[in-house]
Automatic annotation (TrEMBL):
The chain crosses the membrane at residues 12-32, 39-56, 62-82, 171-191, 203-224, 284-305, 317-338, 350-374. GO terms for molecular function: O-acyltransferase activity. The keyword Repressor does not apply. Residues 146-166 are annotated as: Disordered. Belongs to the wax synthase family. Residues 154-163 have a biased composition (Polar residues). This is Putative long-chain-alcohol O-fatty-acyltransferase. Keywords: Acyltransferase, Lipid metabolism, Membrane, Transferase, Transmembrane, Transmembrane helix.
Length: 404
């Protein structure tokens, strides 16, 4: 119980300092022009963001915190230092919206007003709505291969809309809550069951991770929508309906990361490759480079999650995650190359392509990605934390009725 209380206190402290750090970055944007000077000033904030998740050792609090601060926020600040990305706008964002945009996976919207366009004058630039509870045209979700607007997934754009103009999350329904509750009860059972096949247990671990991430992000989305009237970026868009690896990674899985990796890694690498091998084949090294960075960032996140104490520990990457993303990067590059050669003359029917894609993703994940989590003892920590949370809740429940 003391450990949970201490973790919650650390969690509050971490996010308070993170918000204060964003205030510093917002001030920098007013007085320091974009370029080298702003980059040097921003590095102080990035250093703080890298240190903050070290205070958290739980999977449920430390995992999402390290993902947002170390990856999403850090990359957004790098773009901000160059005068790009969602944090750069004309006129500048207010402090409250700057903090929300930098620390939360907020959906990006295109403004109808011409004076609120992005300073980069980029037709594909994206802006966040500065007025909550007002419907704006949602920006395109672009994939790693810079797919045109016509290929943007219609499932995301056609999600259910509530009366106040916001799009409701399909995750927060009764059936989904039942699934989460069932997994909470069954995890300790199947985790310690020696009868189950090891591969099947890995599959259950992967399903547990997927549901857990969706539930956490959906809960954050609901909270922020109620408090600020701001919609958060969906993390997933029915990945089980993917018709190809390009469709899976570009338009259905980890959409927040996709938006960050495209301007920071893919686009610069695309421009550099164009000068060397031409525009036709430039996407191939850009895709592989993007997946390589994603693999490296996952290795870094594993470091934060697997720690047992809120102190520095030696980084010992397993590189399984890196191999997983490099393998998929090469496969996506091959897929793009084949599509370029065929020029849309032939493609697999959906009834064939969807099962092939889903099976390949699951098989490679069970072969490389999930075992890396097992070695980091992520699932063992999750079970311990769930047991501790249950005990903590029972203690609070008992204390409440004893006072009465």
């Amino acid at each position: 119980m003391d450990h949970i209380e201490g973790e919650i206190n650390n969690f509050i402290m971490v996010w308070t300092i993170a918000a204060s750090t964003m205030c510093y970055c917002h001030t920098i944007g007013k007085f320091i022009p974009r370029g080298k000077t702003r980059i040097l000033a921003i590095f102080l904030a990035i250093f703080v963001l890298l240190l903050l998740p070290l205070r958290l050792t739980s999977v449920h609090l430390g995992g999402p915190t390290s993902f947002i601060l170390v990856w999403l926020t850090t990359f957004k600040l790098l773009l901000f230092a160059l005068g790009k990305g969602p944090l750069s706008s004309n006129p500048p964002l207010s402090l409250s919206y700057f903090i929300c945009l930098s620390l939360l996976p907020i959906k990006l919207f295109q403004q109808h007003q011409p004076n609120l366009s992005n300073t980069q004058n980029n037709p594909t630039s994206q802006r966040t709505s500065l007025k909550p509870n007002v419907v704006h045209k949602k920006a395109d979700i672009r994939d790693l291969t810079h797919t045109s607007k016509e290929n943007v997934s219609k499932d995301t754009q056609n999600s259910q809309t509530t009366k106040n103009g916001h799009k409701s999350s399909p995750l927060l329904n009764f059936s989904y809550v039942i699934i989460v509750f069932a997994f909470t009860i069954l995890i300790p059972i199947y985790a310690n069951n020696e009868i189950l096949h090891p591969k099947f247990k890995l599959f259950l671990y992967a399903l547990q991770t997927y549901i857990g991430i969706e539930f956490i992000l959906a809960s954050i989305s609901l909270l922020v929508r109620k408090l600020l009237g701001i919609e958060l970026e969906p993390q997933f868009n029915k990945p089980y309906l993917s018709t190809s690896l390009q469709d899976f990674w570009g338009r259905r899985w980890n959409l927040m990361v996709n938006k960050i990796l495209h301007p920071t890694i893919y686009k610069p690498m695309m421009n550099a490759s164009t000068r060397v091998i031409g525009r036709k084949w430039a996407p191939l090294p850009a895709i592989i480079s993007t997946f390589a960075v994603s693999g490296l960032m996952h290795e870094v996140l594993y470091y934060y999650v697997k720690r047992e104490k809120p102190t520095f520990e030696t980084w010992e990457p397993s590189w399984d995650s890196m191999c997983f993303f490099l393998l998929h990067g090469v496969c996506v590059a091959i897929e793009v190359a084949v599509k370029k050669e065929l020029k849309g003359k032939w493609k697999l029917p959906r009834l064939v392509s969807t099962p092939l894609t889903v099976v390949f993703v699951i098989y490679t994940a069970l072969l490389l990605f999930v075992p890396a989590l097992v070695r980091c003892h992520v699932f063992e920590k999750e079970i311990k934390e769930l047991n501790a949370i249950v005990e903590f809740g029972l203690d609070l429940y008992g204390s409440y009725f004893l006072k009465k």
